[in-house]
Amino acid sequence: MVTLWRREIARRTVGFVLGSSVVLTASFVGVLGLASGELTDSLSRLPFYSLGLAVVFVTAIVGLIRYDADGITAMLGAIGIAIVGFVLVALTGEGLLYALRFPGRVFGSQLLLYFFAAGLIGTGLGYWLLSFWREFASEPEG
What we know:
mainly alpha; membrane; 82% helix; transmembrane helix
């Protein structure tokens, strides 16, 4: 019998995998939109992307400190996570805008399936990195 606790864990895991994969897929679409040159005036959206950077930074630093990271690790980790978060927020925003402006180019081909598959792979790599980040942050034994 599946307990309520296990159902909750499964629900959260599926939610994380789907949410992360959709964000990564939209980011890949954003790269396509920027590379095509059809998304102009991206700098006008920079304040929104900067706000996303700030939210990611604060969330990362609180999370790292909550899980007992030392001060240097928490700050450097939060800066790294914030930079990656900024790129993801910006590319996701551009991807959503490209999909709204040019839906035929995004949904009219199998390219979206390839992007979603890449998003799933990226989610797996991200989950692995989150699970084992302390191994990368600690000094090698020896």
